[in-house]
Each structure stands twice: as structure tokens, then as C-alpha cells.
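Many introductory courses stop at the sequence. We go one step further.
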Amino acid sequence: MKLPRWLTVVMLSTSAVAVVAAAIVWWISWPAQTVREFTTLLEQGRFEEANHFLKPPSRLRIEVTDTGEKVNVERERITGTRMPTLFSPESWQGWCTLDNLEIESRSITAILRGRQEFSFHRQFTTPVFIGGYAERGCIVLSYENWAVQP
């Protein structure tokens, strides 16, 4: 039995539209999912695994000091900027939670680039700014002192 031509065209068109729609949904949701996975690892204290998400040369490193363990964010620094205070892994685990995660709204350009900005300050403000953006499966982490208004 031969299918009518119109039915064949409709079936092929529907299949093509479904594939394109699935790709679009994936492209839009991929950065936010990357941020959630990264946040879950930080919340659980799995810093080494979280490093796999960070875009090189950034890296989270646990330093042992006289006052205990501290998390250091290794990255390229702008000359003349002061390094933020280091905090304990427990502090990071308390701040970088899914409940405190603020996923920012996106522009059309950010959607087309596959970029999602985020920060950790939904429920409370942390002593330092921790945020950044996710882009194509990588996290660019920003860890800065809050700007002080003169």
C-alpha cells in the first residue's frame, strides 16, 4: 500500500520540526542546567569536581592556613585589584546553594550565545560577590569584593 503524498510530506515535516525544536530547547536550557550542576557540587563540598566546569585558568583550590582550610579562587587577576578575603569551604557550601542561586534574566543576544548569568544572593547577600556566567558547558566564575560607594 502506498501512502498519499501529502501524508508523507506532513510526517517528514513534523519530524524535522521536532528535531529543530528539541535542539532549540536544549540550547536555551543548557547554560542554566550547567549552573545548577555546578551549584550542586559546591553545595556538597565537591570542589575538585566543580573545577571541571570552570573555564581555565580558573580553579577552586583549598588552602590550609593557620586558621583552618580556606577556598581560594585561582584566576587571572586584573593588575591593581585586591584579592577578596578567603573563606572556609563550609562558608562556600552555605552560600552557594540552589536556594541562594539567582539566575539572571537573559537578553536575546545571551540566548543566541548560549550564555546565562548567575549570582548567589537570592535569599541573603554574601560577604563577597560570587557569580559569573555559564557558556557552552563552562563556568566563568567571578569572586570579587563588593563595590564600596564613596
